[in-house]
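Box 3.1 A note on notation
Throughout this textbook, protein chains are presented in two layers. The first layer is the amino acid sequence; the second is a token string describing backbone geometry. Keep the layers aligned when reading.
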Amino acid sequence: MHDHDSSQFFGPAHHLNHEGPEAMQAFVSRHRAFFILVVVMVAQLLLLSVQITRNQNVRLIQVWAVRVFDPFERSVHWTVDKTTGTWRNFSGLWGAQKQNQELRSELAAARAQILQLSQQASEADRLRALLNFKTRSPFQTVAAEVIASSPGERSNAIFIGKGSDAGFSTDLAVITPAGVVGKIIAVFPHSAQVLLITDPSSGVGCILEKTRVEGVMKGTGQSLGQLHYIMNDQPVSVGDVVLTSGLDQIYPKDLPVGTVARAGPGNIYKDILVAPAAALDRLETVLVILKTAAQELVPVKNGSSGH
């Protein structure tokens, strides 16, 4: 029963599978003459296209082949050109970016070298000016490097890198080619502490260059000094040069101290502020004025003549 039903179920499908090719064969058999005619005509057309030539002895089949394949060839050629151009542009951009990075690195190195050379030139100029001043100075001086400054917002003292090993003692004047810096207040074997003229505890005997009126400049704890004991009736103008008077027995006479930054009347004495001539906030190398034998007071010990 099962086999009979299966044969009934699969029978029509098996018949359909053979029906397609048989129908095609029957169609070809019925129109065999037409197909043969078409094949013959195509063959003759190809033979004619091979034999027939056009202008410049170009065969017709070549013309047809060019017309058939020309769009495809143009498309391929356009694609290749675009791909090649894109790759060239990408390669060019990559090379330009790499070259740009190299140029930036070279520019940064050149700037650093220029800055270093500029600093070296400034250092050479500063040392040359210091040497010229030392050579022309009538005083015996010793150059010393500034190694530190006192801590605090209002630093009014510095440390220099020479001390008793260089013959330094307290109350020696410290200057630069621009002007007075301060005096030594403490000496150590290989260093010394210098009190700047802007410190409130400092004092410099001064004289106005124009009028030769004497006074004393004391520090204010800031960047300026205050010139005391100049009477109100004395003419003082902004920009007047202030020099050392030499009366304090520390600073030699006629060294630049600064210039008048402000001048006004007070109760008895004028209120005068002085801007230091030396750049006290940018000190690197200073000169310490040594006392000569005539300036030093050498005590004679009892019994020194006898051994």
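Helices lie at 2-30, 32-51, 60-136. Residues 4-11, 296-307 have pLDDT under 50 and may be disordered.
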